[in-house]
Amino acid sequence: MDIVICDDEALARERLVRMVTHLGHCVVAQANNGKQAIAAVEKFRPDVILLDIRMPEMNGLDCAVQLSQLETPPAIVFCTAFDQYAIDAFKTHAIAYLLKPIPLEDLQHALHKATRLNQAQLQALPVQTQDLNSLTQHTTRQNIVARTHRGVELIPVEDIYYFFADQKYVMVRHKHGQVLIDETLKELENEFADVFIRIHRNALISLKHLEGLEMLDNGQYQVRCREIDEKLLISRRHLPHIKERMQKL
To answer: What positions are modified (4-aspartylphosphate) (predicted)?
Structure first.
């Protein structure tokens, strides 16, 4: 893939160049602020941009918003030393948020994710015309943000099998494993009511991945998910509603 690297620190750019080259990709341009990055993207039309956040003249978040308005925007991977901008960063439809110093494995994982995004998918992303404070304020999220050993990861909602409450955290079981997030089931239930259904006081399951119900010897039911072996218990309180929803699938 063709990649643009944008960071105001020369040593940081050099390190990323070495890593990108080692992974078999091509660095077509470098920039030290957002304005230079936009010019480089318009000139070289890269597949991916590795973008720092705190930079002079134009920061990475403002740059990403403008890049998202291009007809064929590159996939955006933020590379920063600060984790507090992750939520705003993913509102610009970044595919990854990597924390410095960036391990080679994490960069490889992010670039592999970028290869799965074709231009048609990128063009289908909503054009951002609002400022960062109003981005996606009134729309349902398409991704869940989770802090993991990789730093900050983006989990597509469509890849999530279920949410399971675990003490003060919620475990997200998805196609590539599981992560913990600091959100409540009630908030998730309200936001994703069209695509997830509560099956127990501690669990929400994706209607898309709901395969069927099984009755246990004690008369209770459990739910089967497509693609995974785990089975979750259904509370008697929620069983009638689940059966009703399943008839409409």
So the answer is: 52
DSSP 141-188: -SEEEEEETTEEEEEEGGGEEEEEEETTEEEEEETTEEEEES--HHHH
**pTM, 2 dp:** 0.59
CATH 2.40.50.40 domain residues, the chain: 143-247
CATH topology of domain 143-247: OB fold (Dihydrolipoamide Acetyltransferase, E2P) (2.40.50)
Fold of 2-123: Rossmann fold (3.40.50)
Half-sphere exposure of 71 (CA within 13 A, CB side): 2
CA dist 181 → 4, 146, 184, 197 (Å): 31, 6, 9, 18
State the greatest distance between any 2 C-alpha atoms of the chain, in Å, as a whole number.
67
Please give the average pLDDT of every successive group of 10 residues along the chain, which has 249 residues. Answer: 96 96 96 96 95 95 93 91 82 86 91 66 44 45 77 84 90 92 90 93 94 90 92 92 83
Eight-class DSSP state of 132: T
